[in-house]
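Ticket opened by: R.M.
Priority: normal
Category: complex prediction / small molecule

The reporter submitted a protein together with magnesium ion and asked that the result be attached to this ticket for the collaborator who will pick it up next week. Submitted input follows.
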Amino acid sequence: MKGIIFDLDGVLIHTDELHYQAWKTVADKIGAPFDRERNNLLRGVSRMESLEIILQGVSQKYTEEEKVSLATEKNGVYRNLLKTLKRTDVADEVRVTLAQLKAKGLKLAIGSSSKNARFILEQVELIDEFDAISDGNNITNSKPDPEVFLKAAEYLGLDEKDCYVVEDAAAGIQAAKAGGFKAIGMGEAAKDPRADYKLSTFSDILTIVS
Ligand code: B16
Ligand code: MG
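Result attached by the on-call engineer:
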């Protein structure tokens, strides 16, 4: 294996919690039921598709314009939360593991559905650790479509069969397998039977690749 493609939210950093808080603000405002279980359905899914999942809980119909406005409002709350992120929001275990993977000669990429991925990576001073970044800005179809990972492999100059994908989302594991990658599940996705490997802690990746 020559490369590893990392999902961002919920894998390298706990921005999944900030997504939850931002969507909760919008959901409470419109009276949509929203809890952590429903939030798990939003992992890896695009902003507009996430909103559609939340709106399944209300009878009111929203126009496209109103939906864009709600999604924009959520992103505003989320961006304000992201501004508080700093270097120490990435665990030492993550930084050390990434450095050790690089030292083994593996190429590292980001494969995130988020349009805020670069902003997050800059905030936490992680952006220079990656050889390529594929995110919500360079794709048409979000996970479970494999596009974001296929683009990441292309940017690395690698074949999908030579790359692992590390994911915390069911949609992400599905995308990785659809693209022909080896899937490593962590967090929620560690329970997914489609994952080829499961992490109990981030540094377990070192054992998988050795
Ligand atoms: P944004 P990932 C995904 O990131 C999140 O898991 C998902 O909850 C979010 O809706 C999506 O990014 C889009 O994010 O609104 O910032 O463009 O897990 O693929 O890194
Ligand atoms: Mg994720």
